[in-house]
Amino acid sequence: MASWDRSEHTTRTVDYTIRSGSAVGELGKAWDAAEAEYRRLHGISDDEALSDDWATVHATDDGVTIRITVNEQVRAVTQ
Prior knowledge:
This protein has one helix at about 25-40; strands at about 5-20, 55-60, 65-79. It has a 3-stranded antiparallel beta sheet with strand order 1-3-2. About 25% of the residues lie in helices and about 45% in strands.
């Protein structure tokens, strides 16, 4: 008899966008907020180092976006 696992995940993205023309300090505030949320969502303490790819940065027509992603398990089936 074979054993197998099946799971479904939803990837949620969270964007922190700094509008064009904002003061540079707003970038730091958005960065800190994104990092804090990423740590909270992934259960990572402030003492632990983050990997280099914890967030991505995107230039848009409206400004700069810091994007974090969260994989959420929808359903798991074990046979």
